[in-house]
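Problem 12. The chain below contains 65 residues. Write out its predicted structure in token notation.
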Amino acid sequence: MARPAVKEVKLKSGYYIEVSSPGSLKGTKIRRDSFEQIQLTMRNYEHSHEVKYIGEVKNGKVIGK
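Solution.
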């Protein structure tokens, strides 16, 4: 068996949300290039999933929420 990865994942620049099924502890991160695109994506997923806005990422770091 192989060892699990210990290196942290670097996020690309853009806007991120986390989408998960209701009651689930883990979710999937979704990236879009503009804030308008991420708002549209949030509206599409909010009817059937739990949506959490992460914020804007630049150079691998979250800038703001």
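Discussion. Residues 14-60 form one domain. Students who got a different answer should revisit the alignment rule from Section 12.3.
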